[in-house]
Structures are given as C-alpha cells and as structure tokens.
Amino acid sequence: MYEHSHNSYRSRIISYLEPSSRKYSKRLILCQTENGPCPIIAIVNSLVLKSNNERSFSLPNKRHIASEEVNDYLIQFAKRYALCEDYDELHGRLSTMHFGQQLNPSILDIQKFDYGDEIFKVFGIPLVHGWLFSSEIMPDDPSSLKCLQELEYYEKIADTFAERRSLLEMPEKLTSEQTSFLENTTFVDAIMEDRFTMQFLTSSGLRKILELIHPGEIVVLFRSCHFSTLYSNPESLSLFTLVTDSGYARTGEDVVWETFDDQVVETGTGELCSANFIPAALILNQRKEEHERRVKEDEHYARRLAQGQQRQSRSGQNTGYSQTAHRPRNNKTPKKKQDEQQLKSCIIC
Fold first, then answer.
1. pTM attached to this predicted model
2. What does the alpha-carbon distance between residue 60 and residue 93 come to, in Å, rounded to a whole number?
3. Cβ proximity of 119 and 97 under 8 Å
4. Phi-psi category of 252—alpha, beta or left, where left has phi over 0 and alpha has psi -120 to 50?
5. What whole-number distance in Å separates Cα of residue 17 and Cα of residue 153?
6. Alpha-carbon span 269 to 267, nearest angstrom
C-alpha cells in the first residue's frame, strides 16, 4: 500500500499522436513540482509514450503516484522483458534518480557520456545532449581542436578552466610548463564562459539532433541540467519536448509540448503548444477573439431587445390615448338598462 506524501508525483492524461497509426490516444504521464526528479520522470514518460503491443508500459490511473510505486513499476517492466541481471542494484539506482542524476557529456558527440547514462541504456531509451563543439563557442583552429579532443568531456574541460584561473591568480612567477599550459588552453575560457555551454546546447548540436532522431522517435534530452522527453513529430518532423511542469496539469490539452528549435538555442525557451502541436498563444488569441465576438453579439442583441421594448411601450401609450379620445362622453346609463335595473328592484323575494 502506497501512501500519498511529498514523495509522490502528480499525474496527467494527454492526447498523444502515435507515430504508426497517426491517431491520437490517451496516455497518463507524470508531472513534477520541484527540481530533482526530472531524470526518472523523463524515463517513465518516455516509456509511456513508446508503449506498444510489443513492449507495453503504463501507470495506474491515479491523481498522485508515490515515488516508490514508480520504482516498482519500472522494476516490473525490466523483469518482464529481462532488461538487466541485478534488480536490487537497479532499484537502488532508480531510488537515487528521484533526486537527480550526474552526467558528464562529451563536447564531440551528442550521444556520448563519460558516465551517468547507464539506466537509460537499461530501458533502451536514447539519451542525447546538444552541447557540441562549434565555432559558436571556440575558434576552429587545429591546435585548439587537438587539445579539445584530449579533454573531450565537460568535467575535464571544467577542471582545466579552474586550473587556469588558479594559475592566472598566482603571484609567483610561473614555470615554463605552466606557461605552456596556459598558452595551449586559452580556448577553454571561451568554452566555459559561453552561454551555449551554460545551457548545454549549440546550433550545431541542434542540427545534429535533427539528423539523428527519426520521425516519431522518443528520446531523453539533457539540457541546462534538466532531463526532458523529446519527440519528433512524424508529420511535421519538428522536435518538441514534453511539458511536465505540474502548473500546466490543469490546462487540459492546451499546453502539452514545447518547441525545440533555433529559438531555444537563442533564448533558452521554446513556444508552448497544445496536444496537437498548435501554439498555445494562438489558441488563447482565438478564444479571446471568440469571447470578444460573443460579447459584441450579446451587446447587439441586448440593444435590439431594449429598442423593441421601447417601441412596444410607445405603441401601448398611443393605443391608450386613442381609446380615451373616442370613449362616449355621456356618462348616463342608457334607458333600456335603467328600465332593467328598476324592474329588478321591484321583485319581491
């Protein structure tokens, strides 16, 4: 029995465009309310969207799902399809992923990591990043590129950057070896201080991801220290990340995806879209215009109704005056009626 606590996730049902049938089906995904659990949420949601007759995965239809329950469903899935040998170790690794996951990406390959991608491989989910070497973050000269190939991974580049800072701040005279080190690693400053490194995404990286992902494919994207489910729309071939912020859980189908394109490279954010990939801003504007149109129609109807009532009121007043004008002015009772009244008064009961 699982208890609802702060160690649980809000669920949400979305309409998902299945790549094979090109039809929409309902899928229950997980949302998050705080930083930390995004790697395991990305794994779960990717399995949910990739689910088919050959390899099925789904979550219970509940509003909140406990973190331990999520672990159990993943373990059951792994056992059903014999995805690993040590399930106790897998359970331990999954438990830590609710609090984050350390990665060490390569600047030379969007699919290469020094460590941290093991669990994604267990579940057969491709993991990619967009932090790829390009002229955006350093000059393309042979000596720098050779040194970069020796460093390759983010942590080595970051350590080199820290060592350079330390040497440059030393009051003592540097040795020839230290001086040579500084001269050969000047490009590291440009890499580590560049905004593209801070978000782990370059235009070259984005283009490589577009080349790599097939239409309808689901992968997990690592960017800006965040893991998200990335989907290639089989109809438009555009890339979208699944919106998992629990704040959008009550928006229905209006906010389900976020575009992943050049705008993300330049600004860090994409455009929010509905379940059928229509920009949410466009939907909002259409609803606003529809609301304004209805308000105008209601106002027009109210004016016509008021005008009609005014005409009826004036017509009634005119009719009343005409009847008064033609009413006989002789208030005397007709003689025949007087005789009848007198006759009635003579009857003895």
1. 0.80
2. 22
3. yes
4. left
5. 36
6. 6
Q: Which residue has 């099925």 as its token pair?
A: 56
Q: Where are the domains of the chain?
A: 8-137+194-283, 138-193
Specify whether the CB–CB gap between 10 and 34 falls below 8 A: no
Split the chain (349 residues) into runs of 10 and give each run's mean pLDDT: 66 96 97 93 99 96 96 98 96 97 96 98 98 75 84 96 96 94 91 88 94 97 96 97 94 94 93 96 70 64 75 70 48 49 40
| b/e per residue 159-194 (b: at least 16 CB within 10 A) | ebbeebeebeeeeeeeeeeeeeeeeebebbbebbee
* Nearest C-alpha neighbor of 220 from the set 246, 247, 244, 204: 244
Q: How far is 256 from 238, CA to CA, in rounded Å? A: 15
Residue 108 exposed, middle or buried by CB count within 10 Å (0-12, 13-18, 19+): middle
Helix, coil or strand: residue 153: strand
